[in-house]
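Let's do one together. I've listed all components of the complex below, 704 residues spread over two lines.
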Amino acid sequence: MGKQSSRPFLMTRNLHPEVQESPIHFLKKNIISNEFFYIRNHFPYPNIHQGNFEVTIEGNVMYPYHFHLAQLRQLPSVTIDLVLECAGNKRSKFSPKVHGEQWEDGAIHQGSWRGVPLKDLLAITGIGQGAKEVLFTGHDMGEKGKSPHASFSRSLPIEKALHPDTIIAYECNGKEIPYKHGAPIRLIVPGWYAMASVKWLKSIAVINHRFDGPFQTDDYVYYPHQNSKEDSFPVTKINVNSTIQKPLNYSKLKRGENLVRGIAWSGNGPISKIEISYDNGVTWEKAIKEKNGVTSFYAWESWTYLWNIDKPGEYVILSKATDSTGSQPLEPFWNQKGYGYNAVHRTHVKVE
Amino acid sequence: MGKQSSRPFLMTRNLHPEVQESPIHFLKKNIISNEFFYIRNHFPYPNIHQGNFEVTIEGNVMYPYHFHLAQLRQLPSVTIDLVLECAGNKRSKFSPKVHGEQWEDGAIHQGSWRGVPLKDLLAITGIGQGAKEVLFTGHDMGEKGKSPHASFSRSLPIEKALHPDTIIAYECNGKEIPYKHGAPIRLIVPGWYAMASVKWLKSIAVINHRFDGPFQTDDYVYYPHQNSKEDSFPVTKINVNSTIQKPLNYSKLKRGENLVRGIAWSGNGPISKIEISYDNGVTWEKAIKEKNGVTSFYAWESWTYLWNIDKPGEYVILSKATDSTGSQPLEPFWNQKGYGYNAVHRTHVKVE
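Okay, and this is what the predicted structure of the assembly comes out as:
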């Protein structure tokens, strides 16, 4: 009965199917251990056996190809450190409230993924004329809308599918991909919200039309109006965003120096600056980027800010990240299904 | 890589000191496994060694007594199934918001505790004239206010200390008390919020005055006004309360029969009825108490309600428990430190 240690856990949002949030406020590393990866399933876990260690490339290709994990491992690979973020991350913060998984800040993780660029595999198969999209289907399936046996299927525009960083991954953080995160083979689409990175990959099909499956044209679509489906557009790239990891929301601080720390990320590539405000956005001061050994185009930036506060009272700390295309907005872009929340992060504290 | 199962975890609220919430919405048993007990520490964990297996009874007693765990085990014991609830449970629901641990519904657990009635131990020591309170001190200590080495100390009025159900416990759920929950000896005060049930018990002192330590007269006090300390009174008994465990807040339901289930509890003893409303409290219907094998005066009541809902739309499901003294209020009793939240439980759902 010596000194006891304490550790964080995943935060359970649902069990059937399993949905768990990363304890992002209690993580300090930049490559997160798999055990703290958030989990978001649409269906029960598929039964993965040896026969599932193969993936088919079919559709509008010259030479359909059926490859095994062992073959994939023989091809030249790339390793990319990247953020995977659920499109619904921070959904609980929308006002008016949006139904669905009530994610706080932890539907995000960062890992190191190794795989073969899809373009290299499509170079083997060749691509037929008129190819428009590439469709990816996972082994996971279940009830969706009126279909009792829908698969999880998503497509990418052909240009994104051929991007050299779109990979057919077989390793995560230097090991086999964990079962719950898409073993043995997972599509990884850096820079896009994570619904694009199809888990338990079963087949790849080059198609000449726009795919209209339910996870493409019903879910993962921005519907900006309360009572109509007008002006909708698909969820794709990760919005520029930041999270204050410490202090915790509605915590109490002592007067004096308080370390504020967090992360900032974007699907558009590097974060150019992170700013902090504690006067509700009237003035902003630059946070300091931490050298964290992760320099990928798709990785988050860790930052700190030393806040010297002597006057007791209630404060709101704001963080705002900026990338090459712009900054986080003060207010979120509300949409019916609650995707892509990226308003400046607000953390309420009481200085005593 | 066969079928994978999923399980809930504690929800981390803080690590130093450790504060973790029970995944109450995903628990179905009525005696909760220790691993799902919420954790609320005020200080770092104490270093418990063999020398801490003894407790002193001192102060205004005729015969001071120093007993060892082994002696305690020889005395006649009682076993009580009971709710332990943090006074801050549901604090995150207060409006205006209150700073402090942002507990949702899970700062509560139910266990089976075995121990010796304190009154039997005080019969051995005798009680001196003018005894007013009994003071309990745990081994945990740390910085509190201006004191760098404050202990966690709390007192009970002499009448409550002598109540036959106030026990010096040494077993929980049929085993030794888990380290994180107060091993080897913990005071258990059934019916009171859990700050009264002092962990890692070190000493018991009969005193002739009112104890005014910081966990008695600063924390764990209701301050009903925003900007004054007037009308304050101590946190003691658990308020009548209920929680809807399923469905989850802001979840989506299918039309037809939906099972609503939850728990109801009170420090005043048995719950006489649990009612459900889905028209914002205009009409109420009785939920059904589940026979759950737990019949203690201090245990929660499990309940279910079969909700037949055919009209799509957004609804709020309300649950309201009633005990011998009254019902949960529609609005909470706001107080500065956010204790004792017990407004009717509200769960927002969207029926599709």
